[in-house]
Design a protein that fits this description.
This protein has helices spanning 46-50, 81-84, 88-104, 112-127, 131-148, 195-204, 209-214, 219-236, 242-261; strands at 2-16, 20-27, 31-37, 56-63, 69-79, 169-173, 178-180, 190-194. The longest helix has 20 residues, at 242-261. It is α+β, with helices and mostly antiparallel strands and 262 residues long. The chain folds into 2 domains: 1-127, Nucleic acid-binding proteins (OB fold (Dihydrolipoamide Acetyltransferase, E2P), Beta Barrel); 131-261, no CATH class. The strands form 2 sheets. A 5-stranded mixed beta barrel has the order 1-2-3-5-4. Strands 7-6-8 form a 3-stranded antiparallel β-sheet.
């Protein structure tokens, strides 16, 4: 209670009343923190420039007991990611990872690993040179997020009986959360994934974002890892991500443009 200070990332921002904004931050010690930034929509507000989405800095806020909305004292930007991101693909991917992190976090939920995961993902998004880099960062983030939330897909052995799964094509149970041997594949809605696709997903969690960008996946591995990871996430979050749908559209457009240019 009282004045609190923590590192913070701006993950949501929307207009409130005539001149205010409601800003949601992700913090290591307090989870999500929503504040009212009074007057921040006025043209000359000093605060408004610092409160761009994806900016990372030090937040000082006054915590109101038993309230969802707190008062912001100051936000000192250390990494102005939101100001530096100008490519619309990069902005879309930054939104995607921020929304996923925000959906998993709760108010007053201390979770430093989640904060640092989002922070390094945003730094990687800023450094990305191509849409392929951005896609690799998204897959790596999804895999790490599942592991962090305790939902790392079990892909080396059958979830039902523990038998080694080493088929060329592995059935992955979406609700059950992992691979199923041929004897147990009927137990769940399954997605068929090739052995190299399984290997790619298993490897992603242990990679840094830089290594994920540098790793060369085949086209099939890219498609399969995306299907598997986004289906797992949608299942855990109990709804399809709006941001994921946006990314789908965006990627379809890029593929179309590439096909036309050929
Ligand atoms: Zn089995």
């Amino acid at each position: 209670m009282g004045v609190e200070k923590d590192s913070a990332i701006v993950v949501r921002s929307f207009a409130f009343k005539e001149a205010d904004r409601i800003i949601t931050f992700l913090t290591p010690s307090f989870g999500k923190v929503a504040v009212v930034a009074k007057g921040s929509r006025k043209a000359r507000s000093r605060l408004s420039a610092s409160l761009e989405l994806f900016n990372i800095g030090e937040l000082v806020f006054f915590e109101k007991p038993n309230r969802d909305l707190h008062n912001i004292n100051s936000f000192d930007v250390a990494e102005p990611i939101g100001v530096l991101l100008r490519d619309h693909f990069a902005v879309a991917y930054a939104s995607y990872v921020s929304q996923l992190a925000s959906d998993i976090s709760l108010e007053n939920d201390e979770n430093p690993p989640l904060f640092y995961l989002l922070r390094s993902a945003l730094v990687a998004v800023l450094a990305a040179g191509t849409v392929a880099d951005l896609r690799a960062i998204a897959r790596c983030f999804e895999a790490k997020l599942l592991t962090l939330s305790g939902y790392r897909p079990r892909l080396d052995t059958c979830v039902a009986c523990g038998a080694q799964v080493d088929e060329e094509e592995v059935a992955v149970g979406v609700s059950i959360g992992g691979a199923l041997c041929p004897d147990h594949a009927h137990q769940d809605r399954t997605l068929m994934v090739s052995a190299p696709g399984i290997a790619a997903v298993r490897g992603l969690t242990g990679l840094t974002f830089e290594a994920a960008v540098a790793a060369r996946m085949t086209r099939r591995q890219k498609v399969e890892s995306k299907h598997l990871l986004t289906m797992f996430l949608a299942e855990r979050l109990e709804r399809r991500q709006r941001a994921a749908e946006y990314i789908d559209d965006l990627e379809a457009n890029v593929d179309e443009m590439a096909a036309l240019a050929r």
